Amino acid sequence: MTEKATFGAGCFWGVEMRFRGLDGVVDARVGYMGGKVDNPTYEQVCTDKTGHAEVCEVTFDPERISYESLVQAFFELHDPTQVNRQGPDVGRQYRSVVFCHDADQEQIAAKVKGEMEASGLFKGPIATTLEPAATFWQAEDYHQQYLARRGGTCAI
Known about the structure:
Elements: E1 3-9, H1 12-20, E2 25-33, H2 42-46, E3 53-60, H3 67-76, E4 85-86, E5 89-90, E6 96-100, H4 103-119, E7 129-132, E8 137-138, H5 146-149
Parallel strand pairs: 6-7
Antiparallel strand pairs: 1-3, 1-6, 2-3, 2-8, 4-5
Helix pairs in contact: 3-4
């Protein structure tokens, strides 16, 4: 039986590629979550007015990879101290966020976030928010596996 995990860590292309490379991840797809518009388009999300984050929805086999391992990978693949941005990408849609699908996920994500804050690995406070998972709106087909289809590698 598989489970879902949803993460926002900047531009969703690299996030998807990173999670797809983890043993135990069955699927990863990009989309939008956490906004106030139903079935948003990329163009709408890019206006920074819908409230959505670009996210990667990860389907994983908990017998092969734990949710905690996924959250740790999430913190390692981006700069969680940046607010509403990652590198040159600026806007609320690029925020650092863990969308928790249940109370267990929220507890685990909070634990890992606390460990990361205490680790001294980051130069500033962690800005990552933990939010309840909402409706996942799959992004347009041309965004799915965008980097892989272009021969790209994961730069994060």
